[in-house]
Design goal:
Layout: E1 8-9, H1 11-18, E2 25-28, H2 38-44, E3 51-52, H3 55-59, H4 74-83, E4 92-95, H5 101-112, E5 118-121, H6 124-130, E6 156-157, H7 159-166, E7 172-175, H8 179-183, E8 200-201, H9 217-226, E9 235-238, H10 244-254, E10 261-263, H11 266-270
Parallel strand pairs: 1-5, 2-3, 2-4, 4-5, 6-10, 7-8, 7-9, 9-10
Helix pairs in contact: 5-10
Length: 282
């Protein structure tokens, strides 16, 4: 195979691929915004052959004015991917604890880094277990890979581009946070409540289930169309820190919009500058 992979893979199909002589590289990217680290889950049991990759330390840069989950340092990312056995042109499958958030950000990061052959295990680790597939506690030592990180293979928005996209008739900027956060009624994480002026609210729960399973491509197209996204409208997405919005970009890919852009810094970057305008309400 060559070119872009289909973004999702089901547990049974992945199991068959792992039985082949040259299986895909497996990355366990389990992560929680708050709570025990994902590495603890990995140690308790993971897909056989999977290597743990830390979202905060590897797939994103350190938090700061650029946001809570900014772009990673390309050299750090490349070193970690090579240590995990990721090879140039070879397929990669990423999975998380089931909500699909960390896996989607890992999928986006690898695609942004120029690695096209990457998929998300649909439903994550729980889907694998529910399918009756084996779980391991052994830590593999993969043969080092030779992947080269080439940033920029997926479109990225900065603050100016996000503001321009949200402007009237310029395109659609999707805010995929919960409606109360969008309206500015409740902000549990960032210091300022509200949204980017002109952004359209499409909460993540309207296109992906809590178990990380996406609606059908037709249903996704219909939901995004209701928000003003057609086949040609420029579209981007943001959330609080660029993780949930990466899942929105994955949903847009499934809906036939592989050109969808991610505002990586998202709201945590937007409100880092108090001079930027903030909208509230609907």
């Amino acid at each position: 195979m060559s070119g872009n992979e289909e973004p999702l893979v089901e547990a049974d199909r992945l199991a068959a691929e792992l039985d082949r002589a040259d299986p895909p590289a497996l990355l366990d990217v389990r992560w929680r915004l708050a709570g025990p680290p994902g590495r603890d889950d990995y140690a308790a049991g993971h897909l056989p052959g999977a290597v743990f990759v830390d979202l905060d330390a590897v797939l994103c840069g350190p938090p700061g004015p650029a946001g809570r989950h900014p772009l990673p340092d390309p050299a750090v990312l490349q070193a970690a991917l090579r240590a995990a056995g990721v090879r140039a042109g070879h397929p990669v499958v990423v999975y998380d604890g089931g909500d699909g958030l960390a896996a989607a950000r890992a999928w986006w990061t690898l695609r942004w880094a120029g690695h096209q052959r990457v998929r998300v295990l649909h439903g994550g680790f729980p889907a694998w277990v529910a399918a009756g597939r084996p779980v391991s506690t052994g830590v593999p030592t993969p043969t080092p890979g030779d992947v080269t990180v080439r940033p920029g293979a997926l479109p990225v928005l900065d603050t100016d581009a996000a503001a321009a996209l949200a402007a009237a008739d310029a395109g659609v900027l999707l805010d995929v946070r919960a409606a109360a956060r969008y309206r500015g009624e409740h902000e549990p994480v960032d210091p300022v409540a509200g949204h980017v002026p002109g952004a359209v609210n499409v909460p993540a729960g309207e296109y992906v289930a809590p178990d990380g399973r996406f609606a059908s491509p037709a249903a996704l197209r219909a939901r995004f169309a209701a928000a003003g996204v057609d086949e040609a409208t420029p579209v981007g997405a943001y959330c609080g820190s660029g993780v949930t919005a990466a899942q929105a970009v994955l949903a847009l890919h499934l809906a036939g919009r592989p050109d969808a852009a991610l505002y990586v810094g998202s709201w945590s970057n937007w409100v880092a500058d108090p001079a930027r305008p903030v909208a509230t309400g609907d």
